[in-house]
UniProtKB/TrEMBL annotation, chain A:
<dbReference type="GO" id="GO:0005886">
    <property type="term" value="C:plasma membrane"/>
</dbReference>
<feature type="transmembrane region" description="Helical">
    <location>
        <begin position="549"/>
        <end position="572"/>
    </location>
</feature>
<feature type="transmembrane region" description="Helical">
    <location>
        <begin position="243"/>
        <end position="265"/>
    </location>
</feature>
<feature type="compositionally biased region" description="Low complexity">
    <location>
        <begin position="11"/>
        <end position="20"/>
    </location>
</feature>
<protein>
    <submittedName>
        <fullName>ABC-type phosphate/phosphonate transport system, permease component</fullName>
    </submittedName>
</protein>
<keyword id="KW-1133">Transmembrane helix</keyword>
<feature type="transmembrane region" description="Helical">
    <location>
        <begin position="313"/>
        <end position="333"/>
    </location>
</feature>
<feature type="transmembrane region" description="Helical">
    <location>
        <begin position="42"/>
        <end position="60"/>
    </location>
</feature>
<dbReference type="Pfam" id="PF00528">
    <property type="entry name" value="BPD_transp_1"/>
</dbReference>
From TrEMBL, chain B:
<dbReference type="InterPro" id="IPR027417">
    <property type="entry name" value="P-loop_NTPase"/>
</dbReference>
<dbReference type="GO" id="GO:0015416">
    <property type="term" value="F:ABC-type phosphonate transporter activity"/>
</dbReference>
<keyword id="KW-0813">Transport</keyword>
<keyword id="KW-0472">Membrane</keyword>
<keyword id="KW-1003">Cell membrane</keyword>
<feature type="domain" description="ABC transporter">
    <location>
        <begin position="6"/>
        <end position="249"/>
    </location>
</feature>
<dbReference type="GO" id="GO:0016020">
    <property type="term" value="C:membrane"/>
</dbReference>
<keyword id="KW-0067">ATP-binding</keyword>
<dbReference type="InterPro" id="IPR003593">
    <property type="entry name" value="AAA+_ATPase"/>
</dbReference>
């Protein structure tokens, strides 16, 4: 049971640090009491945080809803039925779609390269091998590799994008680097955990036989871990599509850029054409990625059951197709990596950094900065609370109704209704997450006054889409045996749900919720950019007014805030497990 | 002693191309104690699933406690399932729940939904749960998280769950295969004791042939989804038992 959990955690987008540590030995007596006391403490703290955040976000205060905007919102949704479909605009949309796709593909490719190298360098296996006497040096090396990865992971793609826009101007390399660097750092962390979970015996045997570290790695450790890395890469690709669209909003081109233009001129039919294109792209990427990942999960189950390791044709085909896609993408956007070492870019970069150093607090002052940090935190907490509730609500109908498969009861009508509910809720979830948070925020600003509440709701809507799916997958992955055992006592489906599904799934739901909270605090930047307040808005103003010294301070505050959230979330997750 | 508890005739179960059971005829009378033995993959667990109504037979007739599984409504099936308690190899408890809830899960078939849901917050019928836990020897574990218990203790929780279910028939699918041998013998004798005490019928799948031959009056040999023999313990010869497993050895290295 424990092994399955950890395996799934590695497969899922969990970036938790806990996956590589062995589960604590079962505690009895006082240990259990201690744990439940701790859990109660956390629960109390969480409730308090939610209430304070809701108050801070302005829930219950007037002047939130802009009633005169309801008309435009209605017009907006009415336009969904008549998107602009003339040949000229369709061609434009198609081109933009390909550009977004190409950015996502190239960004993912870069992130995989970074992830592979960074993952090996930050794995314990890499530093643990070698002569015993140099223990201190090895620990330092491992710590350094991990530390180097923390900063790029803490900075959101959009912030990277804004930075590279200043350095390179409008160039395809901006989007590729902005996606590739933070995604690469995350991938490196996940991959290092995968490597450390893989059995190390073949690797040490090769080392003992006198092979070098890299070749021992290549033969002993990478082959079993690689399929997992690839399947994780596909998950990242899905995320990269959304990131590429958001990057477009800040000026990197593609669908997002066109969306921003159409939003400025309020041409609703155009917006809808572009949104449909984005949803289409997202759904296709989702589908491909889930195909690959479920094939991988099947393969792992087979090898666990002693069926041996087999090459998965789907994985191989996807890999070949991916390689072709990378080449085509580079050609389509006209990627020229020579700009990386062009003198001008370096000059800009160095100039920017020298202007940013030393960082300054600027006009807001320390208290103002702290205030904004608090507001940002409140926005993330309100967002994740809403998303958690809605996600859990959608997750149950969206899960595969496989639990009835080998079961005697359930009539045809009930089965069809269940399948229809599954398809409908999956569709809702996919649409919610296909549209990036800043677009949701722009829509909400029709009917709400700017502030952190529309930002929080925008993040919540998008996060519901992501969280609902992760939760549905975790319901799918529940151990079916206890459920069957309860059903064998003659319990009805709703009782099986209360006694079997909820208690088993709840800890995972909480873990996913916390993981998404870590992501959401980073994404507050994205809605900040469109005016929803918090540190993101400040950062956008500072970069816009060339106040790089102030921007650096804001960025540092933001990274510190994400670190606080990461540590808190990890602590809560430990007590839940 | 009029109608049999279980009557299977010509029962087959297929998973896609794989045949798990084929042409199984089996009748179990009230008060009998039956052991099912056979090599792994013979279809023992599938047979248990067919009997407790969690696996649908793809062919043949299944009647349990007078209820025809193929024709009865879901409600009727649940009604008869309620009277059949099952103990599983991997205990199949919800590890996140406290022991009291896992034991009470045995009552779900007879409780209305509101009571089941309420009990998760305020445990109902705690005395009955306590009595069952006392009977299986872990009375002090009422409020422990089930996942924190040892394997032997978890299997006792599973038995307590069956006890509160108050069944007329107990099915046990490799009840001791996941526990160390000493604990396993304790659990097995507990099961036999209980079935004698309350007079319930017991049907157990066992990998351990010694245990099966030592404690059960009737032994059924299952091989490749078919019944190889179905005899009184006294009439069974060692050769027949050996043949059951010898066949496996001959065909195994494929």
């Amino acid at each position: 049971m424990t092994t399955t959990c950890r395996r799934e955690a590695a497969e899922s987008p969990s970036e938790s640090s806990g996956t590589s540590t062995p589960p604590p030995a079962p505690e009895r007596g006082t240990g259990a009491a201690e744990r439940s006391r701790k859990r109660r403490g956390w629960a109390l703290l969480i409730v308090a945080a939610i209430v304070i955040s809701a108050v801070a976000a302005g829930i219950g205060r007037g002047q939130v809803i802009k009633s005169e905007g309801a008309g435009s919102l209605f017009d907006f949704f009415a336009a969904a039925a008549s998107p602009r479909l003339d040949a000229e605009f369709l061609a434009l949309t198609g081109t933009a779609m390909l550009t977004t796709l190409a950015y996502a593909v190239l960004g993912t490719a870069l992130s995989l390269v970074i992830g592979l190298i960074g993952g090996v360098l930050s794995s314990q296996a890499w530093w643990a091998s070698g002569v015993r006497s140099r223990r201190g040096r090895r620990l330092a090396g491992w710590g350094l590799a991990r530390a180097v990865l923390v900063v790029p992971r803490g900075i959101h793609e959009v912030v990277w994008g804004l930075f590279f826009l200043v350095v390179f101007g409008i160039d395809p390399i901006v989007a590729v680097l902005a996606i590739g660097i933070p995604f690469g750092a995350v991938t490196a962390k996940v991959f290092s955990e995968l490597l450390d979970e893989t059995g190390r015996k073949p690797y040490t045997a090769l080392l003992a036989a006198g092979s070098s570290k890299w070749s021992a790695m290549l033969y002993g450790l990478l082959p079993p871990a690689l399929p997992d890395l690839i399947s994780y890469g596909f998950y990242r690709f899905e995320c990269a599509i959304r990131s590429a669209a958001i990057l477009g909003l800040v000026g990197a081109g593609g669908l997002g850029f066109q969306l921003a233009l159409s939003f400025q001129t309020l041409r609703y039919p155009e917006i809808w054409t572009l949104l449909f294109a984005l949803i289409l792209l997202s759904v296709a990427a989702d589908y491909w990625s889930s195909l690959v990942r479920s094939a991988r999960a099947r393969g792992r189950r087979r090898s666990r059951d002693g069926g041996g390791v087999r090459r998965d044709p789907l994985l191989t085909a996807s890999l070949v197709f991916g390689a072709v896609l990378i080449a085509l993408s580079a050609w389509w956007v006209g990627l020229d990596i020579a700009v990386l070492w062009s003198g001008k870019a370096w000059e800009f970069g160095i100039q920017l950094l020298s202007e940013a150093w030393p960082p300054s607090v600027g006009g807001t002052g320390v208290s103002g900065l702290l205030m904004l940090a608090g507001v940002t935190l409140a926005m993330s907490i309100v967002a994740i609370t809403i998303a958690f509730g809605l996600g859990a609500l959608f997750a149950v109908p969206a899960s595969t109704p496989a639990q009835g498969r080998d079961h005697v009861e359930r009539g045809a009508v009930a089965r069809i209704a269940r399948t229809a509910a599954m398809l409908a809720s999956r569709f809702v979830l996919v649409v919610l997450r296909a549209i990036p948070p800043p677009v949701w925020a722009l829509l909400l600003l029709f009917v709400m006054y700017p502030g952190i509440l529309p930002g929080a709701i925008a993040l919540a809507v998008y996060t519901t889409g992501v969280l609902g799916r992760l939760m549905a997958e975790s319901v799918d992955n529940l151990d079916a045996r206890p459920l069957r055992a309860i059903r064998a006592t003659g319990a009805s489906a709703s009782k099986v749900f209360c006694y079997g599904v909820i208690p088993a799934a709840a800890p995972r739901f909480v873990a996913y919720g916390l993981y998404r909270w870590e992501v959401t605090i980073r994404e507050t930047v994205v809605v900040g950019v469109v005016g929803a307040g918090g540190l993101g808005l400040l950062l956008d103003h500072q970069i816009g007014s060339f106040n790089y010294a102030g921007a650096l301070t804001t960025l540092a505050t933001l990274i510190l805030l994400t670190l606080v959230v990461d540590v808190t979330s990890a602590a809560i997750r430990r007590s839940v497990r | 002693m009029s109608s049999p508890i279980f009557a299977l005739s010509g029962v087959g179960v297929r998973y896609g191309k794989n045949t798990a059971l084929a042409g199984v005829d089996l009748t179990v009378e009230p008060g009998e104690r039956v052991a099912i033995i056979g090599p792994s993959g013979a279809g023992k667990s599938t047979l248990i699933g067919v009997l407790n109504g969690t696996i649908a037979a793809t062919s043949g007739e299944v009647t349990a406690l007078g209820c025809d599984y193929r024709r009865a409504s879901a409600r009727e099936i649940r009604k008869s399932q309620r009277r059949v308690g099952t103990i599983h190899q991997r205990f199949d408890l919800v590890e996140q729940l406290r022991t009291v809830h896992n034991v009470n899960a045995g009552r779900l078939g007879s409780w209305p939904f509101w009571k089941a849901a309420l009990s998760l917050l305020l445990p109902r019928d705690v005395q009955r749960v306590q009595a069952a836990l006392d009977r299986v020897g872990i009375g002090d574990k009422l409020h422990h998280r089930t996942g924190d218990l040892s394997g032997g203790e978890q299997q006792r929780v599973a038995i307590a769950r069956v006890l509160v279910q108050d069944p007329v028939m107990i099915l046990a699918d490799e009840p001791v295969a996941s526990i160390d041998p000493a604990r396993g013998r304790e659990i097995m004798s507990l099961l036999l004791e209980l079935s004698a005490e309350v007079g319930v019928t017991l049907l157990a799948c066992l990998h351990d042939v010694e245990m099966a031959l030592g404690s059960f009056e009737r032994v059924v040999g299952l091989r490749a989804g078919q019944i190889a023999f179905d005899k009184k313990r006294a009439d069974l010869t060692d050769d027949e038992v050996d043949a059951l497993y010898a066949f496996e050895r001959a065909t195994e290295p494929r």
